[in-house]
Design brief:
single chain; mainly alpha
């Protein structure tokens, strides 16, 4: 059974990419309409219209108050060029705001790029687990998983490129002037430096992509093989990859995400990002599978397969909530200034997205997917999946935006344009990859068990 990408889907994806490019371009153009020459007038107009005036002033006060203790409330407010912890280049409130305005389009682009990349990497990990566990229920879904993982290489390279181009607009430790006046960042400079960032990122991207290339090759070769040698190779590579993945995923979450707040750290952070990545990936497997079934394809996928995917969506959502609460509760309760400022900023300025994502990622899946019967109803799973994906976009948004734009956030043209851009690219890459091979990995030794999977 073959899948052929429809012209409507291809054109739709290209339209999304074009609209996204226009939105991103507008975001950069609009942010740079505010310059050093007119920032004072811009703030005066804001104060007059009651937009950001009092909030921004208060945000600056919070940042400077925390700086007097040698910490950071949100490094965009202070790290992107303020007193920098006892240094000599104190910045005015106007300069703070100018930096935040200029940071926004970079941050919006980075959030969307990482979100779609993490979906593909989460699916790659789930795919490896199926091989390593020799799971009998999932082989009918392997070609869907393989298609989604086609985005790992382009997605990772895009995130990496944006990080290097954005430079100090996202990562304050990439600014030598700030580092020169910041003892805390200097203490982490053995890890937080461009050489380590570039070297580790390239090694990780190469490792993820090499595994995906090899296991896809083995999967296709197994279709025409008269023995299980290719399956055994895929099994061995998958078991090894999972060790590589759990280490690299943690380190890359520190480098690409946690280091936007270089004064803050959490030992749970790698697991927390993994949970978000994993549930988002499984959700996309379910959505694409249901879409293909609605087109009369994947007849060998039955309600029990959909039920199991929904069960993973439910279970990993609970796991994500456990990690979110563990991280939040311990830091909030201990109330150590250099740790708690991470959440102070988010609760102060991001109440709606911060607590909203908890409702979307925990309460909604809990209520919708707890009932076993609902897990077999496609439109219920689709509804839950859309909310989960929106919730985990907000999760990434909450990780990046407070550190780069502080209270000057919005879900506006730069953010929506970035989602369109990478969403369109994701659809184009995934569905093109889906059309390159039969939808049934018929050579898999567990295929008969998978096709007759019922309970």
């Amino acid at each position: 059974m073959e899948y052929k990408i429809s012209n409507r889907l291809r054109i739709g994806a290209i339209v999304l990419i074009v609209l996204g490019l226009l939105g991103v371009g507008y975001g950069f153009w609009d942010s740079h309409q505010v310059t050093e020459d007119n920032i004072a007038e811009y703030l005066a107009n804001e104060a007059h219209h009651g937009d950001h005036g009092s909030e921004a002033t208060h945000g600056s006060d919070v940042a400077h108050a925390s700086d007097s203790h040698g910490e950071s409330s949100a490094h965009a407010d202070e790290g992107h060029g303020d007193e920098a912890h006892g240094g000599g280049h104190e910045m005015s409130h106007e300069e703070h705001v100018l930096h935040q305005i200029h940071n926004r389009p970079y941050a919006a682009l980075y959030v969307a790029a990482f979100f779609f990349f993490m979906i593909a990497l989460g699916v790659l990990a789930f795919y490896a687990i199926q091989y390593a566990a020799q799971a009998g229920w999932s082989p009918v879904l392997f070609r869907v998983m393989e298609a989604i993982t086609a985005y790992v290489l382009p997605g990772a390279l895009i995130v990496f490129a944006i990080a290097l181009i954005a430079d100090k607009h996202i990562f304050v430790w990439m600014d030598p002037e700030v580092v020169a006046h910041d003892k805390l960042i200097q203490g982490k400079s053995g890890f937080l430096n461009k050489g380590v960032f570039i070297g580790l990122s390239l090694v990780f991207i190469l490792g993820w992509s090499a595994y995906r290339f090899l296991v896809r090759k083995f999967s296709l070769a197994q279709d025409n093989s008269d023995n299980n040698s290719n399956f055994k190779k895929a099994f061995r590579w998958s078991a090894g990859f999972l060790v590589f993945y759990i280490v690299t995923e943690s380190v890359v979450s520190w480098l690409w995400i946690m280091s936007v707040d270089p004064h803050w750290f959490s030992t749970l952070f790698g697991w927390y990002v993994f949970a978000s990545m994993f549930v988002s990936g499984i959700t996309v497997i379910a959505l694409i599978t249901i879409y293909l079934k609605s087109k009369g394809l994947l007849q060998f996928v039955n309600d029990s397969h959909i039920h199991d995917l929904a069960k993973f969506m439910f279970g990993i959502s609970i796991f994500w909530t456990y990690l979110w609460f563990s991280q939040f509760m311990l830091i909030w309760y201990s109330n150590i200034p250099e740790e708690v400022t991470y959440y102070v900023t988010r609760i102060e300025y991001y109440k709606l997205p911060f607590f909203g994502m908890v409702a979307m990622n925990f309460i909604f899946p809990l209520l919708i997917l707890m009932n076993s019967d609902y897990k077999r109803i496609p439109w219920f799973v689709v509804m839950a999946g859309i909310v989960i994906l929106c919730g985990h976009y907000l999760d990434v948004f909450n990780m990046i935006m407070p550190a780069t734009v502080v209270d000057r956030w919005a879900i506006g043209i730069p953010e929506i344009g970035s989602i369109f851009l990478f969403g369109g690219l994701f659809l184009l890459v995934v569905f093109t990859a889906l059309s390159k091979a039969p939808l049934l990995a018929k050579g898999n030794p567990f295929m008969k068990e998978s096709e007759h999977f019922h309970y």
